[in-house]
Amino acid sequence: MSVLNSVPFEKYHGTGNDFVVVDAEDPVPDRPAFARTHCDRDAGIVPAGSDRRGADGVLFLALESRYDPPRVVMTLVQPDGSVAAMCGNGARVAAAWAAERTDTDEIMIDTPAGTRRATIDGTDVHVEMGVPSFSPRDVPLDSGGELVETDVGELSITAVNTGVPHAVAFVDDVDDVDLESVAPSIRHAPLFPDGANVTVASPDGRGGFRQRTFERGVEGETQSCGTGAVAVVAVAKRLGLVSGDDPVSVSPPGGALSVVVPDDETALLGGPAVYEGDGEADIVFRGR
Question: Which residues are annotated as a binding site?
Fold first, then answer.
């Protein structure tokens, strides 16, 4: 592995889900190697102004300000080098980053999962998340029917796609689940040909839910997962635990998110997107 040069970066987080942000105009020839190197929690980068090493992914963002509203093309490369089709917290960070450069409160975000509209109000960002789908084709599932409250591994899960696949289990108390132990067998279960994020949720006693997520591509638990928060509410509606179109509070370890899942319409995810710091990151190339 040799160091070619460096590239400027910024660091943001959405309720603790943290991302290295690189302007796509700055060329990074080997994006997977860059992400694997700099997202590492033991040896990754630490920006000025922050004390948290590494990240949950690298957002390569291409701003197209000539449009009204401005557009940003978002590519999220995860710590294992894979590309995620969608990331709710990452999309909110992308919107905040783009809004800072265009002095606007509305941004269109182009992702592999489709185009999403975001609105910005101070540090709070609300982003459209698409319509959750339980269809085996959409999740996807190696199954002839939907997967609803079915035992897989040690959990009873419901499968849903909220931009990426999620296996959601409602439990009495999320703190009682050894997620690092029980999640990998579900994440890699043959039922999920593309793998799945594993999300557990429990009622918070106030009409909302607490959430923990083991993320595919990170291969571990993260402080927050926006697609997971939407998945929690989508599955809660499917199981009759909530109803209507009112916002539902979902609280991963990193903070509270607001989720709206209307019937057959795009879901909406809201929460803070916070700038942490910046710096220069080595561009690495892994030779054969």
Answer: 17, 78, 88-89, 197, 215-216, 226-227
